[in-house]
Design goal:
single chain, 1 helix, globular
Length: about 130
């Protein structure tokens, strides 16, 4: 799909798209430890995103996310998603929707598991005073 760009004064202040990272290089270059390899940290964002690595045999224990839908994309390795309806294989390239309220666990396979998660950004915490 293409369109002609007419250019408006608002274009001067509009944020620009940009490349954030090379996920293939992140997945290939991990040191083997568990945890986040990358986090989206740009100011003004409406999303949160992480690239996470689980070494072979490591897992994210069963949990439930009550408020946020999450997209999970397997970048490398393989693993298993365990849900109330059973185990689901997660080979590289699998895109999975984890709806809010769902219960799930992740287990890395023999080659480990590196995946990207994306979800709506949680609002920051605020401290309110009690009226009273």
């Amino acid at each position: 799909m293409t369109s002609e760009h007419t250019g408006t004064p608002d274009d001067e202040a509009a944020p620009l798209p940009r490349i954030l990272c090379d996920t293939a290089a992140l997945a290939a270059g991990g040191d083997g430890s568990a945890g986040a390899l990358w986090r989206l940290a740009e100011s003004g964002r409406q999303l949160d995103a992480n690239v996470v690595h689980l070494p072979s045999g490591h897992r994210v224990d069963t949990h439930r996310e009550p408020d946020l839908d999450v997209l999970l994309l397997v970048l490398s390795g393989h693993g298993t998603l365990t849900a109330p309806d059973g185990d689901h294989p997660l080979p590289a390239g699998t895109l999975t929707w984890l709806p809010h309220g769902s219960t799930r666990a992740l287990t890395a396979g023999d080659d480990g598991l590196t995946y990207l998660t994306v979800h709506r950004r949680r609002p920051g915490m605020t401290i309110r005073t009690r009226k009273g």
